[in-house]
Specification:
alpha+beta, Elongation Factor Tu (Ef-tu), domain 3, Helix Hairpins, 6-stranded antiparallel β-barrel, 4-stranded antiparallel β-sheet, rod-shaped
Amino acid sequence: MKGTWLAISVLAVAAGIAASALSMRRHRAPLPPPRTAGAAVISTTDVTLSGVIRPQHVTAVTSTVSGSVEAFMANVGDEVYQGQVLARIGAAGLESEREAAAHAVEYAQEQVSKAEGAVVSARLEASRAAADAQRAQLALDRAEKSFSRQKTLHAVGATPRMTYEKAEQDYKNQQQESDLMEKARRASDESVQSALDQVAGAKKLLDAKSHEMEDAQGAFEAAEVRAPVDGLVVERRAEVGKPVQESGGELFQIATDTYALELTIEPQPPVLKLLRPGQPALVNVPDLQTGGIPGAIKEIKDTQVIVEFTSTIPAIKPGMRADVRLKLE
């Protein structure tokens, strides 16, 4: 009997232990939460935005005269050199004025040449007249001496009357000849002076016409819009036949460095708050299989972010679209 109760007790204890184990398995306490650091952790993400490539360094080309655009000599994408004519502003009337001024200068120059030729001829004639007058004077001096001698001899009856009268007549004739030669010499000198005056007048007229032509040429050249620098035309404004004023006077923009480029992107406000100047960027041109080009944020203006980069790839040109990849931390 005692053995039977002992067996029952053992079985009861075993059943109790098994029940306790089963209860603990069903109601196991949850694991304690993991320990966390004191600072919050923000995951790193990337954002990609697109924009249009443009040059960093451009020079504006303006017109110094008002009027309508008569013709364009350069288009967007053209490489131009300093001094090249890019456009002409209403120059039809100015060209006529320039041609008229040029013809006036040519005519004035011809008058100067003629006057200078007349001076040469007048001087040559004056030289001959002076020589003739000098010879006539020498002949007069000889005739005067001969007449004076014959007059003295005739007074004392030492020479025939006919010899005396002939000497007297020769002296009078030579005096008339000398007077004529002297008048001719003075007339030649006056002709030289008159020719010189004509030259001075012709040169004065030429100088005035030359100034007029310079003014007409200056006005004509002002109507020619020329490139102030070497570079690539990246923008052209205004239209043929329209006033220059409609474009604000600015007709072209020329990129002076086609390797220094930039583009503008407009991220959403949450992204914009995470950006800063100098932050690295990666520029990719979808149309070209060139890979990413390193760049950086140049500046932030309001909601616009300007990203600059340098490209040595000729195929990458202003006006192309590109993607900018930025890493947000």
